[in-house]
Amino acid sequence: MNRKEALHKLAGSTLLTSLPALGFTSPSANSTFRDDFLHRWKTARDYSLKVLDKMPEAQLGYKPTPDQMSFGKLFSHAAHWNTFFIGSIVNQPPVKEPEATSKAALRDYYLTCHDQCTATIEKLSDHQLDQTGYGTHEYWQKHTGRDFLLRALTHTAHHRAQALVYLRLNGIEPPFFEF
User: Which among 108, 33, 115 is positioned nearest to 82, based on CA atoms?
Assistant: First the structure.
């Protein structure tokens, strides 16, 4: 089984497997990747905000165990690190996490970060998607721009999934999944 077939079986996603042999070298393939990614990125924003909105303000500090992040912190953390991942491609520092923890402040911060990331993604060239060497740490420098985009989307899904569990643990039915 080749890499493309393996990824298709694992991910079941045309986002990864529709690009020619996963070489990502064709400018039209990269533009298709970016456009496909942007659609999913914007859907992830809308769904994440619906999840945030479901938790009552008084429960934003809820944590299932002392070592876990609070419900509200899941959203500020995801937004902050997504500005790091996507900002790394254009040498832009991450947006500082807010000190305020109200639902309105968290929502505004999440939207600010997401909008900044979206504006960056919309301007990325095919070369930036293919290139490596971003950031100052050796670990990050081996990743392509595309890797940073996928990391941000996966990071969002990871922490949103935690938030969905937190809702269920509080007897709140999560919003219907959107992708």
Answer: 115
pTM of the entire predicted model: 0.80
Q: How many domains does the chain have?
A: 1
The answer to whether position 12 is within a domain reads no
Domain with 102, as residue range(s), is 30-169
pLDDT in tens, 134-167: 877 888 788 899 999 999 999 999 999 999 999 9
- What whole-number distance in Å separates Cα of residue 162 and Cα of residue 121? 26
Any domain includes 103? yes
Any idea what the CATH number is for the domain that residue 120 is in? 1.20.120.450
